[in-house]
Amino acid sequence: MNKFFKTLSFLAVIALFATACGAQAAQAASPAISYQAVLGKSLNDKDVADFIVSNNCSAVNSFQLCQNAGVALWLDSDQMVQSVTLYPTSTDSFNAYKGKLPLGLVSNDTMATVEQKFGQLKVEHAPQAGWEPGLPDEGFTPDHFHYWAIYKRFGVAIIYNSPSPSDKNATIHAILVTK
User: What's the pLDDT tens digit per position in 138-178?
Assistant: First the structure.
């Protein structure tokens, strides 16, 4: 009986240990906070604070630069996250963003592909009429290196690696998401 009790006790301790370790592993494996969860929130919000800590961000003026995560947060004067910039491919300053990009975009999309994805039927009830490209609401080249295509209706700006709005082979340099 005593030997049976010792064996049972030993198994109970192992089971308790395995349960405790499993809970810690589950906590460690929980998904990271996404950029969508921080948009529109205060710098003092727990999600924002956790995002900044978990992505090792550094403050530079009104930005939180999360270079290893491929993300930059822009804070307004009230310290609210107004926009998030995602870098889908590595740059000199940022690693590539590894998460899911908004609106079905992928890192190697070209301007032509983005316009196709953001497009619509020419005639809503006549698919045979064809597809209209999703042209931006606005566009400009502020730095003479990148064309910014602004899609207000989607709350994004696509920043291309070419200064020309007619370079349909230009790929995405960055994606600016606003709330």
Answer: 999 999 999 999 999 999 999 999 999 999 999 999 999 99
Cβ atoms of 152 and 137 closer than 8 Å: yes
CA-to-CA distance for 36 and 16, rounded, in angstroms? 37
Under DSSP, is residue 69 helix (H, G, I), strand (E, B) or coil?
Answer: helix
pLDDT of 17-34, one tens digit each? Answer: 333 334 333 333 334 678
Please count the structural domains in the chain: 3
Does the residue 93 lie in any domain? no
Contact in structure between 85 and 174 (CB atoms under 8 Å): yes
Q: Are both 48 and 114 inside the same structural domain?
A: no
By residue range, what is the domain housing residue 14? 1-30
Give the separation between CA 80 and CA 178, rounded to whole angstroms.
12
φ, ψ dihedrals at 124, nearest 5°: -55, -40
> Hey, is 85 helix, strand or coil?
strand
